[in-house]
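Most newcomers find our protein records easier to grasp once they have seen one. A learned vocabulary of local backbone shapes supplies the integers on the structure line. Here is such a record, shown just as it appears in the course material:
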Amino acid sequence: MNPSEDRQKMERLRVLGNLLLDARLATLDSAAAARRASLDRLADLDRPGAATDLSELAAAEVGLRYQHWADLRRAEINLALARQTATWIEARDEAARAFGRAQALEKLAKRQK
């Protein structure tokens, strides 16, 4: 191979490395957004609305029913959050590897010039 072909190959590899990095970053962003949404839903469960026009007994019953419902919902969200966190960690690691590869290809391409 001649040096011109080597430079062309290196440029194609550099472009592919950057495309892979972009794809990995998009996956990471998507995983982070899903995880953030679950965290927001959990936080929303801690803010029940107050019913002011109920008797004390009725308000207590409503509060207990809400807490029971919220506890069940928290359990569901926490399961989803655990899966989303695992996906996010994996996506973060993949993005870090893609970044490292892209940087290495960038340095190699500069060295060839």
